[in-house]
Amino acid sequence: MQTEAKTRTSEWIEIGTLNDIPRQGARVVRRKDGDIAVFRTLDDGVFALRDQCPHKGGPLSQGIVHGHKVTCPMHDWKISLDTGIAVAPDEGCAARFPVRVEGGKVFLSLTPDESSPNK
Amino acid sequence: MKERLVVVGNGMAGIRTVEELLKIAPDKYQITVFGSEPLPNYNRILLSPVLTGEKKFEDIVLNDDAWYAGHGITLHKGKEVVGIDRRHRKVIAKDGTEAAYDHLLLATGSTPFLLPVPGKDLPGVIGFRDLRDVEAMLAAAGEFHHAVVIGGGLLGLEAANGLLKQGMKVTVVHLPELLMERQLDAPAAKMLKKSLEERGIKFMLPGVTKEIIGKHRVQGVVLQDGRELTADLVVMAVGIRPNIELAKKAGLYCERGVMVSDTMQSYDPRVYAVGECVQHRGRTYGLVAPLFEQAKVCANHLAHFGIARYEGSVISTKLKVTGIDLFSAGNFSGDDQTEEIMLQDAGAGVYKKVVLKNNRIQGAVMYGDTMDGTWYFQLMRDGTDVSSLRDKLLFGQGHLGDSGHGDIKNRVASMADGTEICGCNGVCKGTIVKAITDKKLFTLDEVRAHTKASSSCGSCTGLVEALLASTLGGDYSTAPKKRPLCPCTEHAHDDVRQAIRAQSLKTMPAVFTALEWKTPDGCNKCRPALNFYLLVAWPGEYADDNQSRFINERVHANIQKDGSYSVVPRIWGGETTPAELRSLAEIAEKYQVPTVHITGGQRIDFLGVPKETLPAMWGDLSKAGFVSGHAYGKAIRTVKTCVGKTWCRFGTQDSTTLGIDLEKMAWGSWTPHKFKLAVSGCPRNCAEATIKDFGVVCVDSGYEMHVGGNGGVKVRATDFLCAVKTPEEVLEYCAAFLQVYREEAHYLERTAPWVERVGLAYLKQRVVDDAAGRQALVERFRHSQAFAQIDPWAERAKGADKHEYIPLKMVG
């Protein structure tokens, strides 16, 4: 049991290549516990957030990506991709998931970041 | 090391500049502020309500000590700067405190001008400028009975009203025959005098002060004509003088104020100046709105962006006396080249005058009912041609049939705190007022950011502006003269469009570089706008940027609240066949569409389609002969028609065929906002053509064309463009109108507000009078259609943009 728990937290899943995600865009990783949006910024930063706006649950993956932010398509909330936190004066947070790029491949962990306030 | 910025003056202008600077370059400077008053930064325009007792000092504090500390600003309260050593770049305060600068900002404000009459230095003779003056007035009101206010201008009357409220007997001595002669004409000034007299203020008009008398304290005022007034307190409000002694002593060139350029720089480029102490293009200002515009420009240059210019302010005035409504702006007196439209109802206490020159508003003065003041002011600043509004102009915006708000000001004032203002976001009056006072909000944009009110459909904008005006007092200015496209830039929509054409900017990065965008890749506001502007400017050359489109346009369907999509196929002119309906029914069943709805534009809407299914469904629709209905886009939507003379006994022309032809010509075109059309076969107008962006009403002699209608949040009936004889001409005029709209309207501006902004006369000139110009417009529209009329659904059914419709991966 112990080992299983351990592997779960450190498990990285290959989800595709960097080129699969459009620049200034996002793709969705579908899972039972709720979709995860994987974003790629203009400077090729890759970020993963729960695909739910903290406001009314809008799909962040469908928003416009600008700088290191995404604007939710439902009511224009802006969410910071680095932290998952809504840009002031709005208040709220989308859970962040660890993601890394190696050799052009994108790896995602399905366990939200410890420091993420809204797991 | 950070550069050092020293600010002399802890008032509204100086600190507003610092706030603007912190917004755009928070880490650039180490900032030091000197203020001669031993107080935090407060809202000077709200001193009048403090005097009347309607507000307390704490209510008008803008930035407390914690704000300065939080931004690492060194604040020297109660230290008056007495010298500037420009050679060694430092300032010296009275107590010996010194501060070195790389850039210096002078915001020393102004002082009340004291008449040079005998007795002016007696105790009890004061100006009306700062909190000390207000405290002196309040103290006098507690102890004495008689007050004389010298000066019947804006400030003098506010002081008189405040002293009256505090229980004093007040007499106003004013040199000219009319009150507020710089803001009001004779009828308005007389109405104002009458209602102030009814409250108990006495007037000496014209009254020339000869002498102020008294032994140890003021005891009276003697006028030139020999009259003598008892006075325990004399308030001088005859004007203000910019504080320029410090600048003068430092060798900076001054006339009436510190001379500044359009970049707010004095003759020493390291020294900037803003607010009431400056003279710009020969003018000095004593109101708050211009100073905010100056602060923005100054901050822009201090941040080394170097793209903003201050070109002077057009100002309007309101009196902050509760229960008295007056408004004035611009040239309200008129001259031999102007015309006046006037409305006077002495019984109801209402007077309105609008001064026009070549059908453009030059100025306005209003008394009693000032609700439309901001509207006239906007029309004046925009230089809108009002010829089509003339007959209704004085009755106000509420009578244009487009606003539906009625008497905004009274409505807002009488609303309970729990009344919902913004229906889209559920924001109540109390929430907005609280945000304005607690968070010190000054502008519509700030209220939008903090409360979300008026940030969705915008129909409550007028109400929110009225709330801002009533909460902040009279100096609230509706909006800057030039509105930047978005916070990423200082440039307005028109400037950006002009630059795109003039400098042949053909990609978005080219625009960002040439116009010095502040962000690397824009934002959700400017990117869609720029994408559209580039598309219109360079048809066939510019590659549409999908990532800069709102989701609906990116995936060619309407996102619904649950993340599913809706699909609306085009049904030309709203006419269909049993075979078409049969195939639509089969497709709906095949994809198990949860809801099928008939839209207001005579189309069939499939709701609740999962994103992954869209391309397959479009493939089937395509096979059945359907193309995208663009119900999701800022694009040509629908052409609604009636059956016309083919069937209807009243029909005068074949409205259905004309509708279909219009739709076949126009479909696929991207427009600044959605664009709807209709063709009615007779004046009974069953297709509701007079609330469309472009509507045709058939008559026996031909076709009447109407533009700028809207049936949405604000119902607006169309304006009549012109009548033509043949359907071919309708197509031609429609294409020309569409192209002017595409080339010149701001992104996300519907035709209704656009027509009001540019004026119907202008559009008639472009589309009707100028035949060669119309042909050129039609040519450009046809050219752009060659690249636009490609069915996006068919392309995607064949595999285009595949990644948009499938998940990257399925896990767990």
Automatic annotation (TrEMBL), chain A:
One of its GO terms (biological process) is nitrate assimilation. The keyword Metal-binding applies. Keywords: 2Fe-2S, Iron, Iron-sulfur, Metal-binding, Nitrate assimilation, Oxidoreductase. It comes from the Bacteria. GO terms for molecular function: 2 iron, 2 sulfur cluster binding; metal ion binding; nitrite reductase [NAD(P)H] activity. Residues 13-108 form the Rieske domain. Pfam families: Rieske (PF00355). NCBIfam families: nirD_assim_sml. This is Nitrite reductase.
TrEMBL record, chain B:
Residues 421-469, 485-534 form the BFD-like [2Fe-2S]-binding domain. Residues 633-768 form the Nitrite/sulphite reductase 4Fe-4S domain. InterPro entries: BFD-like_2Fe2S-bd_dom (IPR007419), BFD-like_2Fe2S-bd_dom_sf (IPR041854), FAD/NAD-bd_sf (IPR036188), FAD/NAD-binding_dom (IPR023753), FAD/NAD-linked_Rdtase_dimer_sf (IPR016156), NasD-like (IPR052034), NiRdtase/SiRdtase_haem-b_fer (IPR005117), Nit/Sulf_reduc_fer-like_dom_sf (IPR036136). Residues 316-383 form the NADH-rubredoxin oxidoreductase C-terminal domain. Residues 559-622 form the Nitrite/Sulfite reductase ferredoxin-like domain. Residues 4-281 form the FAD/NAD(P)-binding domain. One of its GO terms (biological process) is nitrate assimilation. Binds 1 [4Fe-4S] cluster per subunit. Binds 1 siroheme per subunit. Keywords: 2Fe-2S, 4Fe-4S, FAD, Flavoprotein, Heme, Iron, Iron-sulfur, Metal-binding, Nitrate assimilation, Oxidoreductase. SUPFAM superfamilies: FAD/NAD(P)-binding domain, Nitrite and sulphite reductase 4Fe-4S domain-like, Nitrite/Sulfite reductase N-terminal domain-like. Pathway: Nitrogen metabolism; nitrate reduction (assimilation). One of its GO terms (molecular function) is NADP binding. Belongs to the nitrite and sulfite reductase 4Fe-4S domain family. This is Nitrite reductase large subunit. It comes from Candidatus Muproteobacteria bacterium RBG_16_62_13.
